Records
---
Amino acid sequence: MKIACRPAICLVLCHYYLSAKALQDVVRRLLTSQLFDLRMLVVVHNGDYMELNLEGLNDVMGRVSQVTGSNMLLDFSAFYEGLAFLKEGEMDSGVLFMNDSLFTKLPSWWILRRLACDLDYSERLDVPCMVGFSADYRFFLQNNPWSGAQSYICSACFFANAKAIGLLRSLTERCMAAFPNNYSENNAEDVGLRLAELIGTKFHSYLKLVLLTPTGGVWRPALSIGHIPEMQIRKALCFYLEHRLSGAIQLADGGLIFINRGKHRLGFAVRLYFTLFLWKMRTWVRMRSPI
């Protein structure tokens, strides 16, 4: 896989579950990778805060920031809060966003190598653009409710150019405004009505189906948080933003570049299902192991 040049970009990583050692290994590899020239790497801890030990990487120490995330909108509040640590000039070439599920449930380095090959196209566009791996609509939702497209880019890992970052910020701010800090059972009904008005009737029905159904497909595993109303709403808004951002970019005459289409479709699918199989086997072994 040939990469013409190492694109100079910033990266925001949302951390949930990786252990301290695994997270440090990921950050070290990202910083020393030949795929990207990282201007700045921001780690937003939506799980437990873990101080990174980057001993031996003195030349990159000044390019790493860490912050405790609010987890208000899961991935997207982390992405939004991570952007606050970047200077405007640093974002001119775009930002790579990811959460740590990229390194547990997905063929991470295949995805990153494919992304690196296509970043140059998106940087040169004068319209909003995202690069990432796609998922197709099926079952209840056959297309994007806003753009009509049959696919969207997954939020586990994607690159957004400067104009797309503006859309991400504005959409996230709208969701934050709709979700009160004092959420409780007393105002749950009112918040639910505001949520339905924000995201639209059809997508609201889709979210209820996804979040309240005990089982799901590859992209929608069973959620263990279904009994927590506040977490349901956070998850719903994160789902909404994932789909809404793809739709908003297309409505703005922008573009979505899918790295797993054409000749790469089969290779991605094989790697994806193999990685998921290994992850499920590791999970099963941990659950069977004595405490």
---
Amino acid sequence: MKFYHGSTESGLTVLCPVSKDKDGHPLLYLTDSFAYSLFYLRDRKTDFVTCGLAADGKAHYEEWFPNQLKTLYERRSGWIYEVNANAEPHRIRGIHVCREAVAVTQPHYIEDAYCAIQNEIKKGTVIVRAFEEASQEQLRQYQADLAAWLRSAGPLPIEKQNFYRTYFPACWKQAHE
């Protein structure tokens, strides 16, 4: 079956499982959605993800701060690697895992992830809920959830600390009071 894997690493001809499952076994994460794979071209140092594949097969992205999509993906380049693999479904919808290396059948260079995501929005494969469209209740819940996570996360790398201080100053302050 055809799957995709987004990476900022260029020149890959084989994808190897480098992530680990809860038991420490290596895994390679794949998706059957090209549109969803674009969201994996994110900055791994901040690793902030607010999207997933819904039952309708579309990638649904929610902004938690103004212009989040543009801020996180504009001018981010990378590769979407297409593979044919025997992968098993993961507990997260739209994600599949493979436990062995797979050959890349087609690399797709993405010069600007934001532009590529905008094209997928026009095709209807990505749905974005803009920050301004969120209700006050949704925003309060997001902020409460994020502050709770920040309290329980333990020490974060400096890049993540700076990210949360910049885009979620009230949550950061609430988590560190």
